[in-house]
Amino acid sequence: MSDSRFLCLEKLTLSYGKNVAVPEMDLDIGKGELVALLGPSGCGKTTTMRAIAGLMEPSSGSIILDGANITRVPANKRPVGLVFQSYALFPHLNVYENVAFGLKLMGIKGKQLDERVVDGLKTVGLSQYATRKPAELSGGQQQRVSLARSMVMEPKVLLLDEPLSNLDARLRLEMRTELQRVQKESGVTMIFVTHDQVEALAMADRIIVMLDGHIEQIGTPEQIYNNPASDFVADFVGFENVFERDGNKIKTLSGDVTVSGDIAPTTKGLAWRPTMVTLGEGPYEGTVRGTSFAGGTREYLLDTPLGQIKAECDASLPAHDFGAALKFDLPVHKAAQLARTGSL
Amino acid sequence: MRNKLYAPIILLLVLAFLIGPFIIIIAASLSAGETLSFPPQGLSLRWVIKVFEVESFRASFGISMFLAIGGTLAALILGIPASYALSRYKVPGAETIRTIVSSPIIVPGIIVGLALLRYFVVPFNFGILLALFLAHTALILPYAVRVVSASLNNLRSDIEEAAVLLGCSRTGAFFRVVMPNIRGGILAAFILGFVTSFNQVPVSLFLSGPGVRTLPIDMLSYMEITYDPSVAALSALLAFMSLGIVFLAERFLGFSRYV
User: Fold this and answer.
1) Same domain as A270, residue A215
2) Where does the pLDDT of residue B2 fall: very low under 50, low under 70, confident under 90, or very high at 90 and above?
3) Whose CA is closest to A54, among A32, A121, A62?
4) ipTM (interface predicted TM)
């Protein structure tokens, strides 16, 4: 077993009754990796996570963790931790008792128990809250208790369900850094589920983009952000102008339009971020249908023969009014070249 | 202006209507006279003391206590798992089950009593005490299910999964994280069940038999023969017992949250 195949899903099929949520998924996750399972709701990411935790039994396929087949190992015997989206702290126990819960079940007691709980609370910076009840803590603090409660168990894999979604914007940034720090310090393999690409890009070593129960693309944040493999991924990470490609033409609302530039022969589609659209000059013309000021930039929605185009340019440039005719270009050398289309 | 005058008057009348009988009973029980009367004739504790000397009151109090405590415990033993299943699993026909479980509240006690006697006790020849016990358990069950369900529905179910992932079995998770969090609801159900059973008349009336009666039935038959203030004294004592229980429950549990 190599470190890059620490957790392996092999032809894993997950279903709810007759509905197959995830068909035959293959996935390898390396030891100590921080991985994001990214996708819209209903894409199977949470189902996959629950299967790894043992809360859902796969209908076929297997889960191998650290060389051992854990497919049929019950959830309470798996070396896997899970931080719930709602934190799921035990309301009748205080912070200390919550963190000690799993350790006590393992038969650890006395001084050793105390040391590990105190250590766990220190890691998440909550030592002074040990005697508080969960209801007396803020959302961010509850999240930390939940994290400590799982971490003290020293799991081989730690799963986090939408870890930042219940926090406000400022706390989110803080928690992001916190999670990364805890992961790097402990070296635990961490998989978090999210529908927020910003979160995935900012935190993960590697991102697994899921759609309709299958994996759309696996890559580093840079790869996903700059070289999306499909129209779905492109749209998801902000390439909002996506076209299918046929030879040196792109398919648009008003038929095929010839574009000039180098396109790899395998490219099935082209996609541009709003910021990649050249405004004010170019071979195409559109009408401004919407404009909004976004601080440093100004966003435009254009009605064009190619379809709706989203463009964004520096806010210091003169603004174009609603209804104005505007020339623009879609420069091919800037576009993301997509290997697959048809998933949008 | 008018409203300001009417409101306190109506409130006073309602209070008088609610508390009035209670005050009359207390006053009557402190009477020194020979018959039940209000206003009391003189003042004494002789009838309160008499209550404890009547043999049949002692016996029927014991039976009522047994039914109230035993019946409520039995109802909880059946009701807690039922509530859990109804709130956590997608039981087919859950609504129907809920309605059936609640039916003893809806159907008048006198009908339940008659039906139990005619089609349950007589054909199967149950002993009186067993029949009373089963009937009280059935009557308390709806309260147990409703109150326990309410506190289960307020409890997130993912804490059970969290407990499982920390090493508990499913059953272990129920006892370690579900039970402690619905303890208040269970105690509230216990008190409600206890009071319901203790005050039960119509069903017990049908099922009581020679030598085995609940306290309220015994009081009724006592009054048919003897019209002295000891029944009033006993009523007052029972009222104080109920008040005491509810007061303690409110004090330590916030009872009114559950009922």
Assistant:
1) no
2) low
3) A62
4) 0.85
Q: Indicate whether A237 belongs to any domain.
A: no
Least CB–CB distance from A90: residue in B159, B167, B172: B159
Question: Residue A244 is inside which H or E element, if any?
Answer: strand A241-246
Contacts with B181 from chain A: Cβ below 8 Å: 90-92
Judging contacts by C-beta atoms under 8 Å, the chain B residues touching residue A76 are: 164-169
Query: Nearest CA to CA, how far is A7 from chain B (Å)?
Result: 18
Q: Is it the case that residue A16 has pLDDT exceeding 80? A: yes
Find residue A29's DSSP bridge partners.
A7
Phi, psi dihedrals of residue A44, rounded to the nearest 5°: 100, 5
The overall longest dimension of chain A from CA atoms, in Å, is: 77
Other Cβ atoms closer than 10 A to A51: 23
Q: Is the pLDDT of residue B17 over 80?
A: yes
For residues B107-121, give the mean pLDDT.
85
- Quick check: B242 contacting A, CB < 8 Å? no
* Cα–Cα nearest to B176, from B188, B161, B187: B161
Q: List CB contacts of A142: < 8 A, sequence separation 6 or more.
A: A87, A89, A134
* A246 bridge partner residues: A249
Which residues of chain A does B169 touch, with a Cβ-Cβ cutoff of 8 Å? 76
Inform me whether the C-beta atom of residue B92 falls under 8 Å from chain A C-beta atoms: no
Same domain, A41 and A143: yes
* Same domain assignment for residues A177 and A267: no
Distance from CA of B89 to the nearest CA of A (A): 15
